[in-house]
Amino acid sequence: MTKITIDHNTKAILDKKDFARLIKILQEQGYTVIGPHIVDDVVSLRPIDSVKDLPIGYEDEQEKGEYSVKKVDCQSYFQYVVGQDNPRRYFMPPSQRLMSFHVDKKQFVIDQGPPQAPKLAFLGLRACDLASIQIQDRVVGYGVESTFRCESDTYYGETRRQSILIAVNCTRPGNTCFCSSMNTGPKAKENFDIALTELRQSFIVEVGSEKGKKLAQKLPLKEASESDLELAELKLQNAAKHMGRQMETEQVRKLLNNTIEDSHWDKVADKCLSCGNCTMVCPTCFCCTVTDSTDITGTKISRTKEWESCFTHQFSYASGGPQRNTIKGRYRQWMRHKLCTWWDQFGSSGCVGCGRCITWCPVGIDITEEVETLRQSNKSLLNSNNLQEVTT
Amino acid sequence: MITEAIIRPEPICGMETWFPIPAEILETRKENMNTYTYKIRLVDATLRKQYRWAPGQFNMLYVPGIGEAAISISSDSEDPEILEHTIRIVGSVTRAIENMGPGSIIGLRGPFGRGWPLDKIEGRDVVLVAGGIGLAPLRPMVYWLLKHRERYGRVILLFGCRSPDDQLFIDELEQWTQERKIDCLVTVDNATPGWVGPVGVVTDLLQRIRLNADNSTIMVCGPRMLNRAAAWSFLKLHIPEEQVYVSLERNMNCGFGRCGHCQYGSQFVCKDGPVFCFNEIADIFGKEEI
Questions:
Q1: Mean of the pLDDT values across residues B134-148?
Q2: A135 and A71 belong to one structural domain
Q3: Does the pLDDT value for residue A384 go beyond 70?
Q4: pLDDT score recorded for residue A347
Q5: Per-residue pLDDT tens digits for B19-54
Q6: Looking at chain A, which residue has its C-alpha nearest residue B21?
Q7: Domain range for residue B221?
Q8: Is A278 within the bounds of a domain?
Q9: What is the rounded average pLDDT of the residues B267-275?
Q10: A217: pLDDT strictly greater than 90
Q11: Where residue B11 falls among pLDDT bands split at 50, 70, 90?
Q12: Contact B289 A147 (CB under 8 A)
């Protein structure tokens, strides 16, 4: 084996038999490895100990409101796409203590701060997930100079800084996937340390950062042949063409800004249970609520931050009652936020096309279908100039 | 010179932890049946000196073990060491505050949000329109206009409430009326014996004033329907959209645009508002459940 030089954007070959080494090295460097692992019949993102924990030889089938995973006759490592877990559960956990304290002589005395930020190695993140992490970075202001200390400086930021992101390019997109429409996948373009493309006996390893380079240098990599690279490229091109879903994003902001009172929202509301599943599985949802709890004496107080969903009544509750009292209002808020107002707030779409909200909706509401229906019934609107213009 | 630091002072509490700083209740005053004004002071003397706020901004008031509520500051912004919050008792947090008296410790984060457009009203007539508890965030504006009276044209306060007993700041309303530095008109939905003032909704008062449409700035704060009715009434009187300002109420949890609760279209009411210029929200202002 000839030793090859590893640099930024290097593409090299890692044999499957050496894949265990990758996990081993990460563990030796003190990382907790988070990877795909079957929990309750769903490929989840959980801590793994070794290659054995990966769902090797499994494939998933997804449709709206349906998910299943089964063993097939192959030895592929990553022949499934994303399950209901998403990376934000590690950067902004579903429930997290902010602090516990007590009141003493007119002072709030802190007994315990937030938990220490973990050092995580994400193995097998998909391109949509990488894009969602970038979106969350913008939400919390990670990497932005600010006069204030905010979340980007504490748990989120620390976890983010310490973690290493190892992506896997999708060669077999799912039935509810539409990342190529949202321009986030199926190939990881940025925001990864290392990206892998699975071939039959090996992986193409692509280095995306300094951190990734250091890790790659420790791996028994071989030079990638032209045919290997070509094969990987073909597989990804093929994947992009075989998305289970598509969403036409052209003028989608204009569409949603001008259809607020469209009767179609009533039809969606008739189906929607307002269960909030879509917001829990969505990798870019960031809403949260801080609640207080006390011990039985009422003197030791904890403040806990928890994921919140815009599908609940209390989410918008103010003194005059909930601002969004109907399911129609709440679904519209969620969808308009993802595809429309997100642009104004954070300069990008809030949807990465992972398809989780379609798969995990118990009544099979499909965001791509809803956009298309709105578009079809408002074609004349979109063609006219008599509309509120959207900047950018 | 109205600088950015005057219009929008920065919060003094740590945002990363959402952790309030302690403040002591000095005095409480009953305004009406379910509304009280609480005079509070930060416990920490250094922070107290640093703390600045602008009319229209709010604090997240905190009762340990219960939770937080967004409450506008109702006192004089040029006396920032003593803060007043005028609170209507409606939810769990305000109910807990109701049970507290002088000496009690509450928590506070803030000040948050963008307040009234102090930098855009020099030399103009200012019309303040308040409905019920909506007078609380406008009271600092009255103080400001009175203190710097010579810088502004006519100042008119239109205040509507349900009944004479539902008025707020009764002594001050009387004082402002008598001093005649500003025109102060109060109307009630339901009169009771002894009430000699106008009866009707606050927009009815527009018939009693003469506006200079080219030189007036309007500031509205009240319940949702009043905000709409008032804003639209002024537009009908040919006040340009960019001279109508409305303060909105939403559910708030963080105060700095992170928790998502207060979203109003593209806006985070807590940081982009609560005061909006009408033209910033014109496309969604009349729509339901945004």
A1: 97
A2: yes
A3: no
A4: 93
A5: 899 999 999 999 999 999 999 999 999 999 999 999
A6: A108
A7: 118-247
A8: yes
A9: 95
A10: yes
A11: confident
A12: no
* Nearest CA among B7, B17, B82, B1 for reference residue B256: B17
- Whether the per-residue pLDDT at A328 is higher than 90: the answer is yes
pLDDT digits (tens, 9 = 90+) for B153-191: 999 999 999 999 999 999 999 999 999 999 999 999 999
Would an 8 Å CB–CB cutoff place B253 in contact with chain A?
A: yes
A306 is a domain residue: yes
Q: Which amino acid is at B257?
A: G
Q: Is the pLDDT of residue B123 over 50?
A: yes
Report pLDDT for B12: 82
Residue A337 lies in a domain: yes
- Please indicate, yes or no, if residue A320 is contained in any of the structural domains: yes
Can you give the pLDDT at residue A388? 53
A73 falls in which pLDDT band (50, 70, 90)?
confident
Asked whether residue A318 falls in the same domain as residue A189, the answer is no
C-alpha dihedral (A78, A59, A176, A120), degrees to nearest 10? -40
pLDDT value of residue A342: 96
- Three-class SS state of A105: coil
Of B22, B223, B250, the CB nearest to A106: B22
Q: Same structural domain for residues B101 and B145?
A: no
Domain boundary among A222, A241, A260: A241
Residue A382: band (very low, low, confident or very high) from pLDDT cuts 50, 70, 90: confident
- Does B67 lie at the interface with A, CB-CB under 8 angstroms? yes
Q: Is residue B281 in a domain? A: no
Give A316's contacts in chain B (Cβ within 8 Å): 250-251, 261
Q: Chain B residues with CB inside 8 Å of A292's CB?
A: 64-67
pLDDT value at residue A9 = 75
A97 min Cα distance to partner chain B (Å)? 10
Q: How far off is chain A from B193, nearest CA to CA, in Å?
A: 29
Q: Give the one of B15, B21, B287 whose C-beta lies nearest to A261's C-beta.
A: B287
Domain boundary residue, one of A221, A241, A261: A241
Task: Note whether B89 contacts A: Cβ–Cβ < 8 A.
Answer: no
Burial class (CB in 10 A: 0-12, 13-18, 19+), A7: exposed
Bond prior to B240 in cis (omega within 30° of 0): no
Give how many domains chain A has, as a whole number.
2
Domain that holds residue A351: 252-383
- CB within 8 Å: B258 and A139: yes
Distance from CA of B249 to the nearest CA of A (A): 7
Minimum Cα–Cα distance from A290: chain B residue = B253
- Domain final position from B58, B83, B112: B112
The answer to whether residue A172 scores a pLDDT higher than 80 is yes
Question: How much is the mean pLDDT over chain B?
Answer: 94
* CB nearest B261 (choices: A257, A261, A316): A316
Same domain, A315 and A223: no
Amino acid (1-letter code) at residue B215? N
Instruction: Judge whether B129 and B101 are in contact, CB under 8 Å.
Output: no
Same domain, A289 and A350: yes
Residue of A nearest to B14 (CA): A149
Q: B19 and B65, same structural domain?
A: yes
Mutate to test the interface with A, among B46, B50, B266 (most CBs of A within 10 A): B266
Percent of chain A with pLDDT over 70: 95
Closest-CA residue in chain B for A101? B64
Question: Contacts of residue B64 in chain A, CB cutoff 8 Å?
Answer: 101, 103, 108, 292, 301
Interchain contact A113–B (C-beta under 8 A) = yes
**B129 and B102 within one domain:** no
- Whether residue B242 is found in the same domain as residue B122: yes
Q: Where are the beta strands (DSSP E) in B43-181?
A: 58-63, 67-72, 83-88, 105-112, 125-131, 155-161
Whether residue B263 is contained in a domain is answered as no
> Which amino acid makes up residue B50?
Q
**Residue A301 to residue B68: CA distance in whole angstroms:** 14
Residues of A in contact with B105 (CB under 8 A): 103, 106
In chain A, where do the E strands start and end? 11-15, 32-39, 42-47, 58-63, 66-71, 95-104, 107-112, 120-125, 164-168, 194-198, 202-207, 222-223, 288-294, 300-307, 317-318, 321-322
Beta bridge partners of A160: none
Q: Judge: A287–B261 Cβ closer than 8 Å, yes or no.
A: yes
CA distance B132 to A371: 42
**Closest chain B residue by Cα to residue A389:** B283
